[in-house]
Design a protein that fits this description.
- The complex is a heterodimer of chains A (225) and B (389).
- Chain A has 225 residues and is an all-alpha fold.
- Chain A has a single domain, classed as Orthogonal Bundle (MetI-like fold), CATH 1.10.3720.
- Chain A is 81% helix and 0% strand.
- Chain A has 10 helices and no strands.
- In chain A, 41% of the residues are buried.
- Chain B is of the alpha+beta class and 389 residues long.
- Chain B has a 6-stranded mixed β-sheet with strand order 7-9-11-3-12-13, with helices on both faces.
- In chain B, α2 runs parallel beside α4.
- Chain B starts with a strand and ends with a strand.
- The mean pLDDT of chain B is 86.
- The chains are: A mainly alpha (225), B alpha+beta (389).
């Protein structure tokens, strides 16, 4: 077992989830209620990471932030290096995980009947109070599902991590990349352990997602009565 | 001064021409078919819906909640509207007590909320969530939540005089989602509530019977317009125009033409839509409101029609009464009452529907296909111009 890789993987998953939560929450709530005509475009952009090969995302990231690019060079003068660092990995990880975080939260907010918002307003609650006291408590299963999916997907990400992170031990070598190394080195014993660990974590995350989803559905069923 | 005054006008997204008022302690029902705009009017009062081009005002007591001339438009939070939603819109993650407490002002304590719930028969259910309550119980929680919104202080006590409150109570088809026995109980509770709080109450309903039973006055709404306002009995007996008559479900609604006769009397010529040559004349009062020869629609109030056996009728009708020989086409027995369809001999293209007691039919010894005499008092005929604003 590559403990330092496990550490990198868990750190990356935790930081990605934490960084993505406020962004995803704001985006999801907005998408759930907006009547803006451009909404499908935003939704398509958010879903794009699901369809694009990870190598495409990694490639554009390198083009944008590499030493050769103006942006990369400018960042380098400020002492910020994003290519082959955990910080860079975190940034790209947030991007590719957007659909995993936003989708379940958006669905949860969309399932809150608009009449409940109106009932809160006529009861004297401001828009913010309505969000905190009514919408968020009702949408929390969606939030938990989004977080679980993000953790699981980050642990399993491979292509982007390899291209952007560059397989540096203790810094950017995650469990999935380490597994690849072990197979290359014919260390199948270690590969088995890591593969099993990844299977276990993903299965746990998916089970949680489905369980939360059921809680959410029950909540929705209540509201429709 | 504590009453509600509404005057709204807008062209889009839906046409709206609403004008009505509701005194403190009065219950006014907005009645109309679905899609007529009655719920939109309610939502406009609560501040949940304001068309961009709206003109007019909404006042409660003195202050304006909306006054387009003065540029006043309060948010839903600033208005004191207690709104009972059609499906109650209770917060599913909160207990009944929390649902009510959330809408209560700073003058309310938990004990006050609990006392109000107890008054509504929810004392033992206050810690339940909406999903653990029956439809009727949910409706009472929704009513409590609306009530605390219009009551700045928790003082619904047993004083004989109802208190005047600064808000309005808005009820959006509140009885549509509960079963019939529960509805009867809720009707009684609403009546009891009116003894305690003096606040304008607006009830939106498509159920005419409900409006008739609960409301002091009804406002007939159609296509975004308030067509007629008045006491239920009056609106039902004298609809202002043909559309109102249709909306309040009046049977025996016909076309014709009004002619002036000798002093104070007129002739209503009941005509056939197909040919105006055939027709029969009915004696009516001339109230000097309708010009000679005007096309009219008119309503026959079946309760003021006497039915006699064909051979039994005296040869002369009382002064001003019209005698019509009719064939009984169909008798639908509904227990005590039978729904009878009759065809006038002189105008066979038309039919009259009367609710006759089964006892009367037995006494007349008449069955389908037989003949009877109708004696129509002039009071039974209500005449309206074909189109009025």
């Amino acid at each position: 077992m590559d403990w330092s890789a496990l550490h990198v993987s868990l750190t990356l998953a935790a930081l990605t989830t934490l960084a993505l939560l406020p962004v995803g929450l704001a985006l999801a709530r907005w998408l759930a209620v907006t009547a803006w005509a451009g909404r499908p475009v935003v939704e398509a952009l958010l879903l794009l990471p699901l369809l694009l090969p990870p190598t495409v995302i990694g490639f554009y990231f390198l083009v944008a932030f590499g030493q050769g690019s103006a942006l990369g060079a400018w960042l380098a003068t400020s002492g910020i290096r994003l290519v082959f660092t955990l910080e860079g990995l975190l940034l790209v990880s947030v991007l590719v995980n957007l659909p995993f975080m936003v989708q379940p939260i958006q669905r949860a907010f969309a399932a809150v009947p608009h009449s409940l918002r109106e009932a809160a307003w006529v009861s004297g609650l401001s828009t913010w109070q309505t969000f905190w006291r009514i919408e968020l408590p009702l949408a929390w299963p969606g939030l938990l599902a989004g977080m679980a999916l993000t953790v699981a997907h980050t642990l399993g990400e491979f292509g982007v991590v390899l291209m952007v992170g560059g397989n540096i031990e203790g810094e950017t070598r995650t469990l999935s990349v380490s597994l690849y190394d072990k197979v290359q080195g014919m260390d199948l014993q270690s590969a088995h352990v890591m593969a099993l660990a990844l299977v276990g974590v993903s299965l746990l995350a998916l089970t949680l997602v489905l369980a939360f989803d059921r809680v959410g559905q029950r909540g929705r069923a209540l509201q429709e009565r | 001064m504590q009453g509600l005054q509404v005057q709204l006008r807008s062209a889009s997204p839906i046409r709206l021409e609403a004008e009505f008022d509701c005194g403190a302690g009065e219950l006014v029902a907005l009645v109309g078919p679905s899609g007529s705009g009655k719920t939109s009017m309610l939502r406009a009062i609560a501040g949940l819906w304001t068309p961009a081009d709206v003109q007019g005002h909404i006042r409660v007591g003195g202050p304006a909640w909306l006054d387009t001339a003065a540029g006043v438009q309060l948010t839903p939070q600033q208005r004191r509207a207690g709104l009972v939603f059609q499906h109650y819109a209770l917060f599913p993650h909160m207990t009944a007590q929390a649902n009510v407490a959330l809408a209560a002002g700073p003058g309310w304590t938990v004990a006050d909320v609990q006392a109000l719930l107890a008054r509504l028969g929810l004392a033992t259910l206050s810690q339940r969530r909406p999903s653990q309550l029956s439809g009727g119980q949910q409706q009472r929680v929704a009513l409590a939540r609306a009530l605390v919104r219009v009551m700045p202080k928790p003082t619904v006590d047993d004083t004989p005089t109802p208190q005047a409150l600064p808000g309005v109570l808005l009820l959006d088809e509140p009885f549509s989602a509960v079963d019939a026995p529960t509805r009867q109980t809720l009707y009684r509770e609403l009546a009891a509530l009116r003894q305690k709080v003096s606040v304008p109450m607006l009830l939106v309903t498509h159920d005419l019977g409900e409006a008739r039973r609960l409301a002091d006055r009804v406002v007939i709404v159609d296509a975004g317009q308030t067509l007629q306002t008045g006491e239920p009995a009056r609106v039902f007996a004298s609809p202002r125009n043909a559309r109102v008559a249709e909306l309040v479900g009046i049977q025996n609604h016909f076309e014709g033409r009004f002619f002036k006769d000798h002093a104070g009397w007129g002739r209503l010529r009941w005509t056939d839509a197909a040919s105006s040559d055939t027709g029969l004349d009915l004696a009516v009062f001339d109230k000097n409101k309708i010009d000679d020869g005007t096309p009219v629609t008119w309503v026959l109030n079946g309760e003021q029609v006497d039915v006699m056996a064909d051979g039994e009728a005296p040869s002369l009708a009382p002064l001003g009464h019209t005698r019509l020989r009719c064939q009984l086409l169909e008798v639908l027995s509904l227990g005590e009452i039978s729904l009878c369809t009759l065809r006038p001999e002189a105008l066979p293209s038309q039919t009259i529907t009367l609710n006759l007691t089964s006892r009367l039919l037995q006494r007349l010894q008449v069955v389908s296909g037989g003949w009877v005499q109708l004696q129509i008092a002039p009071e039974a005929l209500h005449i309206m111009p074909v189109r009025t604003k």
